[in-house]
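Title: Prediction job returns without error message
Component: structure pipeline
Severity: low
Priority: P3
Assignee: unassigned

Description:
Job completed but the reporter wants confirmation the result is attached to the right record. Sequence as submitted:
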Amino acid sequence: MTVNAWRHGARIVAARPLTFAIYLAHYLAFYTLPLASGLILRAVFDALSGRSPAGPNVWTLVALMAGVEVARLVVIFSTVRFGQAFHLGLASLMRGAMLNWLVSGPGARAAIGTPGEAVSRFRDDVEAMDDFMEAWIDLSGEMLLCLGALAIMASINLGLTALVVLPLIGVVTLTDRLTARIQRLRAASREAGAKVAGFIAEAFGAVQALRLAGAEGRVVARLDRLNETRRQTALADRVLSAVLDGLAANIAGVGSGLVLLLAAGAMRSGAFTVGDFALFASYVGLAGGGPRWFGRILARRRQAEVSIARMQGLMTVAEPLALTERAPRVVRLFQAEPLRSLSVRGLSYRYPGTERGIVDIDLDLNRGDFVVVTGPVGAGKTTLLRCLLGLLRLDSGEIRWNGEVVADPSIFMVPPRSAYTPQAPRLFSDTLRDNIAMGLNVSEAEIAAAVALAALDGDVARLGGIGVAVGARGVTLSGGQIQRAAAARMFVRGAELMVFDDLSSALDTETEGRLRAGLAAQRGATCLAVSHRPEALRRADQILVMDHGRIVARGTYAALLAGGLIPSSLAGT
């Protein structure tokens, strides 16, 4: 899909029309006031040289000049205020749209690349688009000022005005010819920066593995190489932009030089007054602003298109309007209808470009059931859970909750209807309590009950209490403690359906027994679990045996064992 920065900019304006209009009006006022200053300056010099007709005296003109400058100061302060509202609103619009897309859809909507690369798109690319929109505002004001200045100058001396314009046209032409190179350099710079951020994030997430492998020196060397690449690409990007900006900015000096050289003859003949010269000298720089900003916006357009493509790349199937959609919807807590039955018919999903997935899955759960899914590695067990919860978008099939069709599992299958603990839970760099509550307004008693249910209470006491910090991704906890913290996070939500994927894989036998005893004590608890443990299979009301994405057997432990349908490795003793 071709990216067009102008079109995306127009959509952003349409999403924030009033804020944009107020901000633009302030900029137009700020940029046009210097035209009045130039006219007053012309009148002052003509009055001092005795060439002005009867009118205000010099002191009156000086007072007018002071009034114009005071007005500019007032406009500047007001512009800063509305500018902050515009820029913050623009950034929140785009970041909110990306975040909304990532969190409100199925689990297949995962950020591309490393967390560091995602941060780069949320930060750097949003800022690049913000710079492009700022250039719209500046260009509008500068072009109005430029056209006004040129019109006034042309009314005084058309020939000199034409000489001032020619160098400016050259700058615009040069910038236009270099836009493709600008785009390539910006893309390379962004990519190099994202690699550095991504590598740092991965290194911090694997500190223990790096220390065990004695790889600290190689990690630092790798980071040095990535940083050198980033330095080179960023330098090339910024040098080209700075050269174009400097050329455009200094071209006004060329115009002033031309005025000085050519105005002398006109002044000797009396066709050009001292006031005219003062006006030209003040307007030459003003007239250069329009072409200068026109050149800048051409460069920033290419840079913005790189950023738009990267932001849309984060949203793997994003529509063109995605970046201007409203901020994330807030999922509010609701009173869930108690689960009586859950039925699944014909559930199918294939991972894109592969033959892996699940095919034609049928499943029934009633309130209070404990259903276990088992089978060899790669059988499709985790995929089944993720499809049921809406974390993967179904190819076909139907899910019914209490007999009613679930139109969108990704929205419906959330607490307090269902809660999920994956095989490899993720903790955040926060306290254990906050990792369990995850923003939920729960009491200390509810937290304590969930911790006890997850057989984590003894560990909490040894760690120093529920307020202990767990480090980056729970680095201070063991694998079993992380799993049980995630289980407590699931329990505290009081969900009608609890789904967990191989929850006991990192637990010893005693701890697993306590956790399962806690589950058994929960009246009416409905559980769907992936497990290979014989203890879980024996307790299950129903076992689903999967292989190659299909359910190949179902029944109780005793029935499946008698029929030889449970592999001997799962039969236990």
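Comment from assignee: result matches the submitted record. The longest helix spans residues 216-268.
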